[in-house]
Amino acid sequence: MNKILANIKYPMVRKSNLPVSLRTHKDEAGYLRAKQKGISSKPLNKEEPIQEWKGWILIINEFPYSAAFDTHHMLVPKREVTKDELNKSEREELNNIIDELNDKYDCLLLNFNRKQSIKKHFHIHLLTYKNNRKDIKL
Question: Which are the contacts of 11, defined by CB distance < 8 A and separation ≥ 6?
Answer without folding.
Answer: none
